[in-house]
Design goal:
The protein is mainly β. It has no helices and 8 strands.
């Protein structure tokens, strides 16, 4: 810092969401309790489940995980610029549950997609930001 003003801020990219590092602070934080990220999959797949991971409360510096997503939705997209995807399911991350939680696709008529959108609708009460640590898409490759 110079005269008490920070000269540089470390910024986390949305890419953090697909990386395996889930140490405290190694997340993609976004302002507020609502946000989204679109992920391009390696191949077109028929999604079967999603895994959302947050740090456990036991290693959280504050002792809480209020910045964890609470209610979220997942959409399948044919292209990254598609205005509205196909809803694959609406879920709640359980702050009292395991830090790694897997959710089955609710829309059993889901097609094959190259992109998924994770849309966070609320967090567990943090007034300033939400942290996304890791999101995984499970499915069957298109033949």
């Amino acid at each position: 810092s110079l005269f008490g003003f920070p000269l540089w801020y470390q910024s986390r990219s949305p890419r953090a969401v697909i990386q395996p590092d889930v140490h405290p602070g190694n997340c993609w934080p976004f302002k507020g309790s609502q946000g989204f990220v679109v992920i391009e999959l390696a191949v077109r797949i028929r999604p079967t489940a999603f895994t959302l991971e947050h740090i456990p409360r036991s290693i959280s510096p504050s002792g809480s995980i209020r910045s964890a997503p609470q209610d979220f939705s997942v959409y399948g997209l044919d292209g990254e610029n598609q205005a509205e995807g196909v809803l694959l399911g609406q879920y709640t991350y359980n702050e009292e549950g395991d830090s790694i939680q897997t959710f089955e696709v609710q829309n059993k008529d889901a097609a094959v997609y190259k992109f998924t959108e994770l849309r966070v609708n609320s967090n567990w009460g943090h007034p300033e930001y939400t942290c996304l640590y890791r999101f995984r898409v499970h499915g069957e490759p298109a033949m």
